[in-house]
Write a structure and sequence with these properties.
By secondary structure, the protein is α+β, with helices and mostly antiparallel strands. 16% of the residues lie in helices and 20% in strands. It has one helix and two strands; from the N terminus they run H-E-E. It is extended and about 45 Å long.
Length: 70
Amino acid sequence: MGKHMFELFHSTRGNRGTGIGLAVAKKVAEEHEGSISVQSRAREGTTFTIRLPVEHETFADPSHTHGPAR
């Protein structure tokens, strides 16, 4: 796993990847006061862990979120 994996437009997949997936996932997690981490072992696989707070002071009231309009 490279140290650039969370950088925008970094891809090891050539034309098969855009390099935005992990960068976007990291940004979303951090904007919700969370984090994303990675653990990888050769021939065993890779695990990504996303941690988000159970409660968020700023968004305790759901009317303050920006979800889809109903």
